Amino acid sequence: MKALVLQGPGQTAWQDVPDPGIKDAADAIVRVDAVTICGTDLHIVKGDVPEVVPGRILGHEAVGTVVETGGDVRTVRPGDRVLISCISACGRCRFCREARYGQCRGGGGWVLGHTIDGTQAEYVRVPFADLSVYPLPSAVDSHDAVLLADIFPTSYEVGVLNGKVRPGDTVVVVGAGPIGLAAIVTARLYSPSRVIAVDLVESRLAAARSLGADAAANAAEEPERLVADLTEGLGADVVMEAVGVPEAFEMCTRMVRPGGRVANIGVHGRPATLHLEDLWIKDVTITTGLVDTHSTPLLLRMMAAGRLPTSSLITHRFELGQMEEAYEVFSRAGDTGALKVALGGPQHTAVAASPEP
Question: Distance of alpha carbon 308 from its chain centroid, rounded?
Answer without folding.
Answer: 15
